[in-house]
Amino acid sequence: GLTWKLVREYLVKSPLDQIPGPRSSSWLAGNIPEFYDKTGKHYYQFLEDYGSVMKLQGLLGLQKSFMNQVKNGPKEIDILHWMSRTTLEIIGQSGMGYSFDSLKEDAGSADLHPYSRSVKRFGGLLSGTHTFFITSYILPFAAKLNYPRLKRWIVECIPSQWVHDLKDIVDTIQKTAVDIYRTKQKAMIEGDDGKKDIISILVRANASAADEDRLSDEEVFGQVASLTFAAMDTSSSALSRIIYILGEHQEVQDRLRQELFEAKKNNNGKDLDYDQITTLPFLDAVIRETLRLHPPLSIAIRTARKDMILPLSKPIKSTTGDHISEIFVPNGTSLFASIYGANADPEIWGEDAQEWKPERWLKDLPEKVEASQMPSIYSHLMTFLGGSRACIGFKFAQLEFKIVLSILLTSFRFTSGPQKILWTMPGITSPVLEGGDITHPSLPMLVSPLDV
Ligand code: HEM
């Protein structure tokens, strides 16, 4: 058994082989000397190789851009626009070693990376009942029709601006994914840029994979596109929502800012690093509470792949008056699971379940929450779902929120604007002005520089 454990690493391939761990200074002792290293050399090398909160902060021109805009006094700024640019840039740099946007200067919609513009419009275009009709009836049929050119031709013949806008957006997303992939391939051919982001590692691993394991070009494009899409729109929606709520609750905004200033002061005035920023309790509570009550995805859609019996958490009264505690679900049935409903259920979270109260995370959660057995990877919440198709980016998202909020709140105050904001749920929750165009989400808020 022991011999096998020692030689296994050299004989059996593991997917983890593709993820570079910290280099060991001794082949005999592995990483043990690093445990006892008091100089921090290893730690700094690790930061150099893999990046850190400080490095990411350096990358963001966000603070400077906001500062430029408010240097002559408070100004109305579209927070959604900025959070979309920021989250795209963060996943670009850390997920694919690719920069979409310098964030250095304020740019009008026309100056944005086409990807950014497309994703921003995508959610808006998908609102409305025609979307339900198309996703329920047209897409399942289209997916079975395995002739891409014919499908494109049909789409091009449809006399609808909405369809053409959607087609252009999908084309831009695909083109961007191809560009990123080609850039990586070129870097590899020219001697490998040695980047450690997910897509660079994937491209390198794919090039050396056995034929039967290798992903096709189309499959890699798909990975790039889905990673970018899954990471950007959800995160920009959540960040915008957090800032919006802080605008409505100035006292909470002040308390959060106080926590950030104190932590920085205790760190001798230096920027907080990863470990420090993740341990700030109130920052964590504000994020957790917003993701509980306002999940960016409020519904998860699933299709039953076989006949099944669905047990209910409590009996319900049927149309015949009987109480039933389970439901028969035939193969092929579409199921809509309400993420919002589960996260804000008063029977689980208590009477105040539908109120936004970050303090609930600073004390023990109700026993019913612990006992709820929610399918969840995050704090008994369904925000990132659970199981094998749960979100892979939930830790990434939280760290990203903490970094962005710590940058913004220590320099600016956010106040709600005069217009009423409605949060629509076309897919990913997004803000629109009351009475405004639902296909053009935006979140104007008043931003003022702090006098510190
Ligand atoms: C607040 C931010 C986020 C929320 C609320 C969120 C939520 C979700 C949810 C609910 C799913 C499951 C969708 C389904 O199967 O129906 C999912 C999947 C996924 N998420 Fe996230 N996500 C967030 C941020 C991120 C980030 C930052 C990344 C990448 C770094 C990411 C990458 C993914 C990927 C790749 C999947 C597909 C996983 C699979 O199907 O196996 N997400 N996300």
Describe it:
It contains 19 helices and 9 strands. It has helices spanning 2-11, 32-35, 41-50, 53-59, 62-70, 79-96, 114-125, 129-144, 148-157, 161-189, 198-208, 217-248, 250-266, 274-278, 281-293, 339-343, 346-349, 367-371, 394-409, and strands at residues 75-78, 299-303, 308-317, 323-329, 334-338, 412-416, 421-424, 430-433, 444-449. A hairpin with a 5-residue loop joins β7 (421-424) and β8. α7 (114-125) packs antiparallel against α10 and α10 packs across α12. The longest helix is centred in the middle third of the chain and has 32 residues, at 217-248. The mean pLDDT is 84. Bound molecules: protoporphyrin IX containing FE. Protoporphyrin IX containing FE (HEM) binds at residues 91, 95, 226-227, 230-231, 234-235, 238, 295-297, 300, 383-385, 389, 391-393, 396-397.
Q: Please tell me what the overall shape is.
A: globular
Query: Order of strands across the widest beta sheet?
Result: 1-9-6
Q: Give the DSSP E fraction (strand runs of 2 or more residues).
A: 5-15%
Ligands, deduplicated: protoporphyrin IX containing FE
- Low confidence ranges: none
Instruction: Please describe the biggest sheet, giving its number of strands, its sense, and whether it closes into a barrel.
Output: 3 strands, antiparallel
How many H/I helices? 19
Helical content class: 40-55%
Order of helices and strands: HHHHHEHHHHHHHHHHEEEEHHHHEEEE
Q: Look at the helices and sheets and give the structural class.
A: mainly alpha
Q: What gyration radius follows from the Cα positions, in whole Å?
A: 24 Å
Q: Quick one: how many beta strands?
A: 9
Query: Cα distance, first to last residue?
Result: 63 Å
Average of per-residue pLDDT values? 84
